[in-house]
Structure formats: structure tokens, C-alpha cells
Amino acid sequence: MKFIFNCIRFVFRLIWRLIWGLIWSVALSFLVLVGVFYFTTSTETGAEGLSQALRTTVTQVDQFLTHQGLSTGFQTNEGIQSHQLTDEHATTGARWDQPSATIYIDTNNETFRSAYQEAIDSWNQTGAFTFQIINDKDKADIVAAEMNDGNVSAAGEAESQTNLLTKRFTHVTVRLNSYYLLDRRYGYSHERIVNTAAHELGHAIGLDHNEEESVMQSAGSFYSIQPIDIQAVKDLYQS
Ligand SMILES: [Zn+2]
Fold it and tell me: pTM value?
């Protein structure tokens, strides 16, 4: 009886030591990483540099775990940053001659490709405007591309060239910003990425911002193409 008791106690002690060993190893590795990042990547010194190194470590470890498929949904202090701004589009007052344009999808990113594809399908289904996908970038009226820019606060942009005499577009480039849209810390769902693509294509059609329930809201990307948007395209191309 005493022997069995001793055995159980031995096993428990062993498990206890293993757990503590593991905790110590993890804690020690973490501290070493913080130290490494402090001396290599921190741009500040003292407490600010240390907190910078700490954030870098947490982000790196989290990214590593995510990469290994072990993500626990663990968030850093920065957490899910709310990012809302779709773009800072200025009114152009321009449109295409006809309610149709050719478009070339200029990205190899699968998420963006399918988002553009879905957004194009949605616009085409409205019957108000038709995008025709072509494979020749030089011949396309519209180029649907991507960018990776943290210096701008927008999730996308639409850059247009207009014939100022006729007020007609000659070329439009739309871009989705992977800096926000593809960084899971900003929490963009596939649906919101598609809405962002549909929004930028709305600018490529000639639509301005509309703060009603509309795909053209300047922030949020919470709405897909709404009846109000279809009407706006019809009005724009009526004359
Ligand atoms: Zn916009």
C-alpha cells in the first residue's frame, strides 16, 4: 500500500517538475527574445524601447504560432485595431462614355483576385454597369491592382485620368491596400474586402461617396451594393 502511494507521489512530482520546467523554458526564451529585439529592432532606448521590444516579441511569437496552426486568438496590446476608412476619394464629376468598361485584374493575391471577381459579378448583376474582364493590361480601361502602404490610412484607392474637355474617364486604376485588408489584426472579413473592392469599382464607374446605406460610404465597408447605388449609376449614365 505504501509502495503504491510512493509511486503516485513520484509520478505527481515528475509531472510537477515537467510543467515547471516547461514554464521556465518558455519564460526564459521569451525574455531572451525581448532582449534580442531590444538590441536589434527597437528604435527607442530605455522603457519605451523595452516596451517596443516586448510588443515585437508578442507579435512575432503570435505570428509564429499562427504560422504553425497553433493560433489561440491571442492578441497583443494593440489588439484588433479598428480600421474603418475606405478611402479619401475626391469628387471627379467624370464617367465613362457608355455604362461599360474593360477591366484587367492585376494581382496574384488569391483573396484580392476573388474579391475583385465577386465585386465585378455584383456590379454586372445590377444591369446598370458592365465590367468586361480582359487579359491585356494595356488595353484595359480599368486596372484592378493592389498596394501595401501603411503610410496612407485608406483600405483602397481609385486613381483616375480624365479628359477634362469631355469629362470622360480615359483610365482608372483601383487598388486594394493589403497593409490593412490582409492583416488579420485589423479584422477585415472576406465580405468587407469584397465590399471594399465594390466600393473602389464604384469610383471607377464614376460614383462619389454616399453616407447613406450604401456601398459608397467613405468608411466601414459594411454595405454591399444597395438599391441606392444602382440608382446612382443609372442617374449618372442617363444623359
Ligand atoms: Zn471611396
Answer: 0.68
